[in-house]
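Notes from the 1:1 (GR / supervisor)

We went over the backlog. Supervisor wanted to see one worked example end to end before approving the batch request, so GR pasted a single chain during the call. The sequence is below; no edits were made to it. Supervisor asked that the structure be written out right there so they could see what the output format looks like.
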Amino acid sequence: MKTTIKTKIKTKFNSKSYNLLSFGSNTKLKKKENGKVKEYRIAGLSLMPADKVKGVNLCAMAILAGCKAPCLESAGRGSFQTVIDARTRKTELYRDNKAGFMAMLRGDIYAFIEDCKRFSVIPAIRLNVISDINFMSLIREFPEVQFYDYTKTLSRYKKDIPANYHLTFSYSGANRKYKDLFKPIWKTNYNIAVVFKGKTLPATYKGRKVINGDISDHRFLDPMGVVVGLIAKGKAKKDLSGFAIDLQTV
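Structure output shown during the call:
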């Protein structure tokens, strides 16, 4: 399988029509499979994680997993006040008017699908850029869209996951109970994301091949049964809890 990431968009989507969905830097990519090229367009939904907005917690496992303090929300553009304000407004809408939020999100997805049809590309959406909400009912409404997420909600490995939904489970070594609950995930073929401290990734971790997850965020293109290695960013660089794995102390 050969994957090529394109960071320059040659065709302009009508991004002003989207109220909740947004585009990142790597939003268009091609995948060559069985001699055919599939081209995707990527959109994401960025809300505030854990209890960053009063009255709502969009990462139910944040405390148990020990990732609340070193959350990757601060990575990249996440430290800009304009970005924080936009994410906060969306989260407040989710908290105060969930029905309206979901109606708006459905409208965005429909508009995104139509734009993708116009440019003959496949729509791919990450609904939990830094949150961890169960959107599976919504995902089943749009089988033509490739959805993907990271999750720390470990019970999902037992669920009936929609065929168009790719999940990568997020590991944390910060809490013994969470590590124990995570043990069954290591025995599955689900991919597992691990944040590492330092500047380089190991070749293997816990018997699995490690791939570089920082090259691309498009997890649905990854081979199965691997560790998706991520270099600690933002607050996670200084994490001492065990959320970010320090191989020198393991």
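Supervisor's comment: Residues 2-238 form one domain.
Batch request approved.
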